[in-house]
Specification:
The complex is a heterodimer of chains A (102) and B (483). Chain A is mainly α and 102 residues long. Chain A is built from 3 helices and 2 strands; from the N terminus they run H-H-H-E-E. In chain A, a hairpin with a 2-residue loop joins strand 1 and strand 2. Chain B is of the alpha/beta class and 483 residues long. In chain B, the strands form 2 sheets. Chain B has an 8-stranded mixed β-sheet, sandwiched between helices. In chain B, strands 1-3-2 form a 3-stranded mixed β-sheet, sandwiched between helices. The mean pLDDT of chain B is 97. Classes of the chains: A mainly alpha (102), B alpha/beta (483).
Chain lengths: 102, 483
Amino acid sequence: MSLTADDVKKIAHLARLSLPEEEVALYMQQLSPILHFVKQMNQADTSQVEPLSNPLDLSQPLRPDKVTEPNQRTAFQAIAPQVEAGLYLVPQVMEGEDNYVE
Amino acid sequence: MLNKSIAELNHALHTKKISSVELTQFFLGRIKQFDTELNSFITVTEEQALQAAARADAQLAQGTAGPLAGIPIAQKDIFCTQGVKTSCGSKMLDNFIAPYDATVVKRFNAAGMVMLGKTNMDEFAMGSSNENSYYGPVKNPWHLGYVPGGSSGGSAAAVAAQLTPAATGTDTGGSIRQPAALCGISGIKPTYGRVSRYGMIAFASSLDQGGLFAKTAEDLAWLLNVMAGFDENDSTSVAHDVPDYTLTLNDSLKGLRIGLPKEFFNPSLDKEIANAIQAAIKEYEKLGATFHEISLPNTALSIPAYYVIAPAECSSNLARFDGVRYGHRCKNPHDLEDLYKRSRSEGFGKEVVRRIMIGTYALSTGYYDAYYIKAQKIRRLVRQDFDDAFKKVDVILGPTTPTPAFKLGEKTSDPLSMYLSDIYTIAVNLAGLPGISVPVGFIQGLPIGMQLIGHSFKEARLLNTAHVYQKATDWHTKKPEGF
């Protein structure tokens, strides 16, 4: 399994990582052998095997839907990079009506 | 106060031979003296520690103190600690003051234990050498030119150099057992679901499990009594009875059936490690145990399966670091995507980026079945191997690592060679089983470890098997020079 430069760029975009152009080749070089290595899994015949996601094969318990936590907005926003009036601030996503698609 | 077991410290505190404040000052002094060199702590919480010690002394004076009250402990910096920086070894969380305590931290605090600080680790627990920390590598106390193992390298080095009597760790693919082996101390990874993961920063949620480092199996038993138990805040926590692990420590090993997986004793195993394990087997025979060859045929496939599952879960878990709610945020983002991308790329180190990329690829459209589902099927085969083995034996014994500690910098340029050093520990995580590593000898001055693996929730059996060995041998009493 060899990754191309486009593969690496696509994966980085899916993972929301910005890779400088000079690092693309480095990741091609480092990730390809790892993906090649994990392909050893194909040595095992798993056609009759169910996937195991929880090692104890347990499913997630359900609980009644009731309020158990107090509101801790102030504490949580105290560690946020940028807040205003109780809101988290990010760069503007929609600029005016022109960009608004109905 | 050095070389004392938890039981001896407990006795000294309860009989007022020492106070918790004195004990805490003693270990804080050792951290000051030695940690500039070792780099085993990211944060030392001197002020809070002395306050906690004073509270413990008050409880001891009133006679309301529990068995661990007043005894110092270090927390791996992956456990959230309210009001204290919780970095997870990453630049991403260098500015993160946790708004709440992890359940594990809460339990030890409630028991009156005194937190000395937060220990160094590979970034987001990804690594086997502690060289991936944003805060610099940790040195192995047995030889400062060597790695302590990882990812819980700071905790292991701090216990080995006796900067703390005990420390917590987490183990996703060997991150407690491997550094315990490489630093010459005892370390336990409990059954998946035995210890709460609430407030323990997630790497690979179906593999991560909190555990402990101490000098001996006996000390681990005292600590696990407090650490283990159901937590409704962790949906994978299991409501299974927690026995008093100290009560069965001295049970006889007569008739104990120990399995030796033939796949563990192959030609790639270091000869001197094989000899040390053979000596331990002889010791166990003297103690009445019997040995049986078993087979874990899918051992070799556990590494490729692990390096799909762990990165896949990592890429999903680490998606939360977006530069919006907490953690690192890039300067002057020109739009939302730029904010995400630059905050993440600036905040994460190289190994974390590699694993996020592998995981993203394995989970992406067209590759999900071939990688992730395939790996989960292998995972079931690995689990089945162990279930079959435990029909014939009570405990499985083997080496913890294929080699002793390696030199700082030796494997950093070749991530795959680093992954292969996890061969004996990874299958245990895939199967969710408990494992313990105890010192079993030395190669050219560097410690090596023996791993004991038990069936689900058989921690008491593992601690008993390790403790009886430690009563008959003295490897666990050896200490690195200069500390």
